[in-house]
Amino acid sequence: MKLDDIFTIMDKFSASNLDVIKIKDGDFSIELKKHPQGGVVLPAQSTAPAVYAQTVLPADQQQVSQPVSENPTVSAGAEIVTSPIVGTFYRAPSPDALPFVEEGQKVKKGDTLCIIEAMKIMNELEAEYDMEIVRVLVENGTMVEYGTPLFEVKKI
């Protein structure tokens, strides 16, 4: 399947009333899901439709890292920021740059928390409100899925 075909499917799916669609064509498969309402989800800055795509590669080509903590315990008064899309989590804008945020750092609304690369698009996750980063829950370069806990934060 060509990339243009995938974008066409994503556009039509985004405009539809469907919540989930799965397509399989030989070794290639794609699953699209619309974001459910609720939870702590920060907006991604991208021109992509409000859906995510997961490309399933043959088993011998898959490399998925696990988050530092799959079910993190949350301190009193803290919240979990989760991934709004499937992609690769990056703490910094480039390998030799400093991370966007560190544990203990206070962040203003609109500041970049991380980048999630999805389909060769770099999606910046911005703080939805003023917060303090309590813990970073995912290692740099980790493949994350929709809803993966990324940061433990406290509103300030």
Automatic annotation (TrEMBL):
Report what the protein is called. Answer: Biotin carboxyl carrier protein of acetyl-CoA carboxylase
Keywords recorded for this protein, A-Z: Biotin, Fatty acid biosynthesis, Fatty acid metabolism, Ligase, Lipid biosynthesis, Lipid metabolism
What domain of life is recorded for the organism?
Bacteria
Briefly state the protein's biological role.
This protein is a component of the acetyl coenzyme A carboxylase complex; first, biotin carboxylase catalyzes the carboxylation of the carrier protein and then the transcarboxylase transfers the carboxyl group to form malonyl-CoA.
Q: Which PANTHER family match?
A: OXALOACETATE DECARBOXYLASE ALPHA CHAIN
- Pathway it works in: Lipid metabolism; fatty acid biosynthesis
- CDD domains per record: biotinyl_domain
Q: Which gene encodes it?
A: accB
Q: Single GO molecular-function term?
A: acetyl-CoA carboxylase activity
Listed InterPro entries = AcCoA_biotinCC, Biotin_Carboxyl_Carrier/Decarb, Biotin_lipoyl, Single_hybrid_motif
Indicate the segments forming the Lipoyl-binding domain, all copies.
Answer: 78-154
Species assigned in the record: Rarispira pelagica
